[in-house]
Amino acid sequence: MHAQIKSQIKSRTGVSGFLLALLVTFSGGALAAGITGTKHDLSISGGGTIKSTDQTEICVFCHTPHAALKNDNIPLWNHTLSTTAAYGVYTSPTLDATDVGEVGGINETTAAVSNLCLSCHDGSLAVNSLNNPSNARPTSTFAGDGKIPGTSAANLGSANDALKNDHPVNFTYNPGSGPGLDSTLVATASLTGVKLFSNKVQCASCHDPHTSADPTGSAFLRVSMSASTLCFACHNK
Is residue 104, in this structure, part of any structural domain at all? Predict the structure, then answer.
């Protein structure tokens, strides 16, 4: 009987240990391992010029386990969403997609993945404008106003309809032939590295906010730009 009880305790201890390790991994270890020290690390350990002077938490600037903004596109989102009405839409005679949508003018229920990026990158909000601030440091301080300046290449604001001359986002990825289809696109099932969101191309299709496959690490790319590998991940020309 005692041996059986000891065996059950040992078994449960092993399971508990495994669950604890899993919790540690997903509560910051796995993501922080890629983001720590980069420009997207907005804590005091960050690698950019826009960062906190006192906040040690890394994930809090984008995510929160409680009181998060939520729809199917938002992963426990914590940053205030921008109220910018329009960013402009890319147009070109060579663009086959027929449903490229304006990203601006959204709310919590209609926000697309690209809106999460733009909530900081349009320069209208401080990067520490949070829905649920840190309990330890609810008034985390930043040098200046904490906004991406308009002179920065990272600022994709609406002043000059910035998205009009950038790769289009917020459209359906439709490989094939015929109206609204593009025969030069790689088949959806064959995509490698890049990511679609509800079969749409968004900013995060090419950019991973947590890490970078690019050797410089500066662009947070999902696929290296060496030999235009990222371009060829989708475009078969």
Answer: yes
